[in-house]
Q: What sequence folds into this?
DNA sequence: TCGGACCCTTACGTCAACGTCAGATCTGGC
DNA sequence: GCCAGATCTGACGTTGACGTAAGGGTCCGA
């Protein structure tokens, strides 16, 4: 599946000819620094299948592309903003990888119009599933905040002179 | 400070005469069930000073009031919604306890008007500090969501016929 | 070619937030 | 008074997400 080498949406390459012309690939140290995480974290993400460096040297050294870095930032975002664990994040990323693949298939001229509509609808489903959880979280937070604001207004009323 | 027995903002009582007329106090099992947490969690929260049952029997059994249950629910809310750890939650709860105390002092007739204004301003400060972190989180989530929505709209455009 | 910087795997350590188990204790109803 | 069931206090176990240290390989510029 997906035999075309090279573009695997920043997560699914395995190795690389040694003569690739190194377009801004970073060692694990620089990559970690740039993404604001530890080297250990990058290896750990790889171990869980969240992030595979776009290429590795013949000697086994990991080389990270800018796309890889972006993926790490995405992981952190999903962690801190949504509070997802790495398992749930894996699912989200799998969905996003699937969507990227769909987009490539979509633009392939051999894809029929009917297939295109099917793929597009699949994309929508995947996106909506994430949107639902995010929206739920946002609504809950909104409620929390408005509750807080109500209490703040109450306190301000006290300051302004209106009793209890 | 605050010699009137009973009302300690649901977190700061220690023991109780054995003849208290038991107004809906729950054992740890029932309390845990009602709050949707484990008994261990309740003991753990107490150990960290987050939650002290309003009374304990002479034999050392914990008795939880409805206010205690509400406090547990508050703890869970702060955990899941805001992603705070129990240490940060302790700070938030200390602030809220302080505000409750301020409210009591406020309504004491012996409190001068000037003192009242001072306390009210202190309340406002405490509330704003929490509000800031919540609002930051909300904004971040909002951004995440709108980004998601943009991508969904793009996909929907594809479905509707508009290319790329 | 060689040395220092960088990187590898393996494996054990850590921290928060509880889970779980054992053995003793308390409570309430009969 | 007595017993079943709820609860108590340790104390050790667990899980996720890494930290950290050891003992080696890799890479590349002088």
A:
């Amino acid at each position: 599946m997906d035999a075309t080498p090279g573009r695997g949406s920043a997560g699914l390459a395995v190795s690389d000819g040694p003569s690739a012309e190194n377009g801004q690939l970073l060692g694990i140290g620089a990559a970690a620094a740039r993404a604001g995480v530890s080297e250990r974290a990058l290896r750990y993400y790889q171990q869980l299948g969240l992030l595979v460096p776009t290429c590795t040297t013949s000697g086994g050294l990991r080389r990270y592309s800018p796309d890889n870095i972006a993926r790490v930032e995405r992981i952190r975002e999903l962690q801190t903003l949504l509070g997802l664990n790495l398992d749930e994040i894996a699912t989200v990323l799998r969905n996003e990888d699937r969507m990227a693949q769909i987009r490539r298939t979509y633009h392939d001229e051999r894809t029929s119009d009917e297939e295109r509509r099917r793929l597009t609808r699949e994309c929508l489903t995947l996106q909506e599933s994430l949107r639902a959880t995010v929206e739920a979280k946002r609504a809950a937070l909104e409620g929390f905040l408005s509750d807080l604001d109500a209490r703040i207004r109450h306190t301000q009323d006290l300051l302004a002179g209106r009793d209890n």
About this structure: Helices of chain A lie at 28-35, 39-47, 66-80, 86-107, 113-160. Residues 28-160 of chain A form a domain with the Multidrug-efflux Transporter Regulator; Chain: A; Domain 2 fold (CATH 1.10.1660.10). The longest helix of chain A spans residues 113-160. The radius of gyration of chain A is 22 Å.
